[in-house]
Amino acid sequence: NAGVTQTPKFQVLKTGQSMTLQCAQDMNHEYMSWYRQDPGMGLRLIHYSVGAGITDQGEVPNGYNVSRSTTEDFPLRLLSAAPSQTSVYFCASSYRAGGLTFYGYTFGSGTRLTVV
Amino acid sequence: KQEVTQIPAALSVPEGENLVLNCSFTDSAIYNLQWFRQDPGKGLTSLLLIQSSQREQTSGRLNASLDKSSGRSTLYIAASQPGDSATYLCTPSADRGSTLGRLYFGRGTQLTVWP
Questions:
Q1: Do B49 and A108 touch (CB under 8 A)?
Q2: With pLDDT > 70 as the criterion, what percentage of chain B qualifies?
């Protein structure tokens, strides 16, 4: 099915471990982004990309790396996991229709990460 | 920095009521505004997208209005049903420079519709 696919759905890490959250979309969307959602707070932007080879930091980038080697994939890497990174992570994509016209976002179903 | 406020934070109503969910944002320079619903433990599902040049959008029992100059959007839900129970999120997107297309989130309105 077309859409945004995130893997894994659940993950438990020990403090100091590293891992990569995967995000893939098959809609040829240029714009992809990662958000984290914590209880009692709105979603916060971690990193985003406006196209292959182009990434930029969002609101809460510390402790995370991203790369965008293809249009389809936008993995999020946790370098050294900390309990403060326990959260639900969402990947989203969007597209442009001529010029700078952005349209609606499609979100993945999320990855629930626990760091112990 | 764009700040998004949604009122009420929570709403519990009996089935059949017509509902109004309010959203306000501090920076009126938005590109568009999207309403999402989020079911517990799930991702975000897009409901309606309003471009900045539009005043409203309708989809079934849902109608969203946008007053860009005053920084307000309203989501109307007609004849509410238990299946409408979810958290509703209003997300304006930035319209300029390096932040073009970025979404901004508030805490949402948690809606419960009981039979």
A1: no
A2: 94
- Tokens representing residue A4 in the block: 């945004």
pLDDT at A42: 85
Cα→Cα distances B42→A37, A70, B75, B88, Å: 12, 27, 21, 13
Selected for mutation to probe chain B from A43, A49, A55, A87 (highest B CB count within 10 Å) is A43
Query: Does an H or E element contain A74, and which?
Result: none
- Picking from A73, A91, A100, the residue whose alpha carbon sits closest to that of residue B93 is A100
Q: Are B96 and B8 in contact (CB under 8 A)?
A: no
Mean of all residue pLDDT scores within chain B: 92
Most confident of A56-60, A78-82, A99-103: A78-82
Lowest mean pLDDT among A13-17, A85-89, A92-96: A92-96
Buried b (16+ CB within 10 A) or exposed e, A81-114: beeebbbbbbbbbbbbeeeeebbbbbbbbbbebe
* Interface probe with A: pick from B2, B105, B107, B109, most Cβ of A within 10 Å: B105
